[in-house]
């Protein structure tokens, strides 16, 4: 009977480890063999919950069960109630992390208490402090295993919580030179392989990083983005260097704007663009 | 940095913080610290020193315009580290270890500083009585002797700062660093509106949601309340 129990528990744990939010009671029931009575199932839940291997969550009144890693469950069992409370708050903050002051207010702990709790959790490698580029000076904590999200680390453009303007500038200039120097429009991959070959950046730059760099160039008006048909028929984004806009491309320079007989002008009328003196004079004044 | 509990400073600070102003709240810090490193400070000081040396090696020209003096000098680095540790000690919820030099300014004129503070504190002096002003400056003079100090001012960055929180109308933050006595006096004050002050921690939650890039997983996760 005992081995059956262990086997059933393992089935439950496996079922509940699917997906990031856990599973409902129904889904677990479906994965268990038919002969398991509801009471037995409840007993199994309770046993797992007590040992901390299973976690119960509520959303919109529905209950969800989620598996907790054995290592973490063991560490959590050894925690005091306060420590567990702090841990669950930090866990809830995900990879955005939570500020110590908010922790203090929510958990209603004194400063010294909280410091002790956090030190203990840190020692047990359950949580870690980290710095966010948006909230530079605040003391933030997140779970030990999580990777901080990009809006917290700033990605490759931030060094030591500050925007690395020099680094960005170098990459910008090199990319611009590459695009201007190439005879045809370039793809993001080509830019990426060129820049990587230069070896400027110590850490690996992702596809998305190059895209945001190119996007900055588009906003600066030095590069434009086009879509080309590639060999296998799909459309591919390519980038090429922009010419400066010629002054006569702006609508405001056309004399029609200040023409006294604008309202009477039409293609086939007596007054028409084809015989307009103002347009002729303006055309002549343009430099090509 | 060890907090030095000096009775007269605490009393001055208490009087200012307890001021009854209809729509405003005063948060003043008049705290003296000893520069002898306490336990966890030693670790931080070492790692900061390490980091500064590395940065110097990487780009020696980066710290040209330094308010604490050229960072190639050990004493300038020590000043910076002491200022950072003071800020950390004064604000338990903050970690100023990535403080940029551009946030600090050297104050040369003590009288100008005094006038600046007096002009901001005028309405407080009216309530606390005229002797308060004298009491304040006399005690500061006795405890830290400003004329023998290097005085620095911290410029808030309006992003993640205890001095530029929501609702703050004005603030100042001065450090009186007496090298020989190995003491730093922190004299800082913020005047904020009472309304904004009460909802401060709510605001800080909003700040964090601001840059929320939905990875699809985060939002539902936050809605789950863990029952057990």
Automatic annotation (TrEMBL), chain A:
Pfam families per the UniProt record, alphabetical: RNA_pol_Rpc34
Chief location category: nucleus
Any single GO CC term annotated in Swiss-Prot or TrEMBL for this entry: cytoplasm
Organism domain of life: Eukaryota
Keywords attached to this entry: DNA-directed RNA polymerase, Nucleus, Transcription
GO biological process, one term: transcription by RNA polymerase III
UniProt-listed SUPFAM superfamilies: Winged helix' DNA-binding domain
UniProt family annotation: Belongs to the eukaryotic RPC34/RPC39 RNA polymerase subunit family.
Free-text function comment from the UniProt entry: DNA-dependent RNA polymerase catalyzes the transcription of DNA into RNA using the four ribonucleoside triphosphates as substrates. Specific peripheric component of RNA polymerase III which synthesizes small RNAs, such as 5S rRNA and tRNAs.
Protein name: DNA-directed RNA polymerase III subunit RPC6
Species of provenance: Galdieria yellowstonensis
UniProtKB/TrEMBL annotation, chain B:
Tagged with keyword Repressor: yes
Major localization listed first in the record, in broad terms: nucleus
Xref: Pfam families: Maf1
A GO CC term assigned to this protein in UniProt: nucleus
Localization of this protein: Nucleus
Keyword set, alphabetical order: Nucleus, Repressor, Transcription, Transcription regulation
Alphabetized InterPro entries for the sequence: Maf1, Maf1_sf
GO terms under biological process: negative regulation of transcription by RNA polymerase III
Similarity comment: family membership: Belongs to the MAF1 family.
Protein name according to UniProt: Repressor of RNA polymerase III transcription
The organism of origin for this protein: Galdieria yellowstonensis
């Amino acid at each position: 009977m005992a081995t059956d129990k262990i086997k059933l528990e393992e089935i439950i744990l496996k079922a509940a480890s699917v997906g990031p939010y856990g599973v409902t009671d129904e889904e677990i029931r479906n994965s268990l063999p038919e002969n398991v009575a509801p009471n037995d199932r409840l007993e199994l839940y309770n046993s797992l919950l007590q040992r901390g291997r299973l976690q119960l969550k509520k959303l919109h009144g529905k209950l969800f069960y989620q598996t907790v890693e054995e290592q973490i469950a063991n560490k959590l069992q050894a925690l005091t109630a306060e420590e567990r409370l702090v841990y669950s708050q930090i866990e809830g903050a995900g990879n955005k992390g939570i500020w110590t002051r908010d922790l203090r207010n929510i958990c209603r702990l004194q400063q010294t208490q909280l410091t002790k709790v956090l030190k203990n959790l840190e020692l047990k490698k359950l949580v870690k402090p980290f710095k966010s580029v948006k909230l530079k000076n605040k003391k933030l904590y997140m779970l030990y295993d999580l990777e901080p999200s990009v809006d917290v680390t700033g990605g490759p453009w931030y060094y030591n919580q500050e925007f690395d303007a020099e680094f960005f500038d170098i990459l910008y200039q090199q990319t611009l030179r590459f695009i201007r120097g190439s005879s045809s429009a370039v793809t993001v991959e080509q830019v990426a392989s060129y820049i990587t070959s230069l070896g400027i950046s110590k850490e690996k730059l992702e596809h998305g990083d190059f895209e945001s760099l190119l996007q900055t160039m588009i906003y600066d008006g030095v590069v434009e983005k086009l879509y080309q048909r590639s060999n296998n028929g799909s459309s591919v984004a390519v980038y090429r260097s922009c010419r400066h806009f010629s002054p006569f491309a702006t609508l405001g320079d056309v004399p029609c704007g200040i023409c006294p007989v604008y309202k009477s002008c039409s293609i086939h009328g007596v007054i028409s663009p084809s015989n307009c003196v103002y347009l002729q004079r303006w055309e002549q004044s343009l430099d090509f | 940095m060890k907090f030095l509990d000096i009775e007269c400073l605490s009393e001055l600070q208490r009087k200012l913080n307890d001021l009854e102003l209809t729509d405003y709240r005063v948060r003043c810090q008049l705290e003296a610290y000893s520069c002898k490193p306490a336990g966890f400070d030693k670790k931080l000081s070492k790692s900061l020193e390490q980091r500064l040396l590395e940065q110097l090696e990487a780009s020696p020209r980066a710290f040209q315009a330094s308010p604490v003096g050229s960072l190639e000098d050990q004493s300038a680095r020590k000043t910076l580290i002491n200022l950072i540790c003071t800020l950390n000690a004064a604000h338990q919820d903050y970690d100023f270890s990535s403080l940029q030099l551009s946030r600090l300014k050297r104050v040369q004129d003590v009288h100008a500083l005094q006038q600046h503070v007096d002009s901001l504190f005028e309405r407080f002096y009216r309530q606390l009585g005229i002797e308060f002003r004298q009491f304040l400056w006399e005690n500061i003079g006795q405890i830290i002797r400003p004329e023998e100090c290097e005085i620095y001012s911290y410029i808030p960055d309006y992003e993640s700062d205890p001095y530029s929180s929501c609702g703050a109308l004005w603030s100042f933050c001065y450090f009186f660093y007496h090298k020989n006595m190995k003491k730093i006096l922190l004299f800082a004050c913020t005047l904020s509106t009472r309304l904004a002050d009460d909802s401060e921690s709510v605001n800080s939650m909003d700040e964090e949601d601001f840059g929320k890039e939905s990875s699809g997983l985060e939002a539902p996760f936050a809605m789950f309340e863990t029952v057990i």
